[in-house]
Amino acid sequence: MKVIVLLGPPGSGKGTAAERLKERLGLDHVSTGDMLREAVRAGTPAGKEAERCMQAGELVADEIIMRLVEERMAAGGAQQRYLFDGFPRTVRQAELLESVLERRNGALERVLSLEAPRDVLVSRLTGRRTCRRCGTNFHVRNIPPRQPGICDACGGDLYQRPDDNEATILNRLAVYNRQTESLIARYASSGVLVHVATDKPLDEMVAELVAALDGPARAERRA
Ligand code: AP5
User: Fold this and answer.
1) What is the pLDDT of residue 218?
2) What is the pLDDT of residue 223?
3) Which of 4, 57, 186, 203 has the fewest CB within 10 Å, making it most exposed?
4) Is the pLDDT of residue 78 over 80?
5) 37 in Cβ contact with 143 (< 8 Å)
6) Is-catalytic flag, 141?
């Protein structure tokens, strides 16, 4: 079992990149945000607890996240190559992932740190529209759907995520800086990290991420 992690602040392009990478490279995409939104829709006990945190832009408890991730990994085989999007987000989650990999003879193959300036992140999030049916992301200006409000992929309705309002976005960015950013240093020292600037057109961003998966780890940012 191999694991690739997409690390990066809200709006850095993790979900958008994951959709393209999983198709191109045959990866098993695991988004903890999507799993939590599904649990909220289904009204499970974990979903009810997660909903309050998500609406405030705070992180959901590590125990809930690890339960969801472990259940998901237990369903996959030993040959699986996972693409984690938005997980791990705390030192505790990173430690627990390491112990799961150790138990299952797995390896952390690469951590891609997706990075973009703060004003780009805010404008991407305020303009994001998501398909209610298949989850594809669009942006009202950067990646508009062919027909406003309708998904190009499946014809479903597009909606704005409840946590994509300005106050919650600012808190999500602060929470990232406080609780997740320190993981970059942790992974730099384990020799698996590559920094990728994602403030560029979509095709270029995806090509750089593919190259980052093929090439060597690079703990320094490129000038
Ligand atoms: P989650 O759903 O993971 O949200 P997030 O991390 O805040 O990230 P986003 O989905 O907002 O951004 P993204 O980086 O995926 O950007 P996207 O590709 O969509 O988590 C939501 C909540 O769940 C958290 O706040 C927390 O409460 C909880 N949670 C989840 N995981 C957790 C965990 N492990 N532990 C604890 N709690 C957890 O792109 C954004 C926009 O930009 C889109 O409109 C897109 O079309 C556009 N765009 C993307 N790339 C480009 C490009 N190259 N050019 C132009 N536009 C682009």
Assistant:
1) 80
2) 58
3) 203
4) no
5) no
6) no
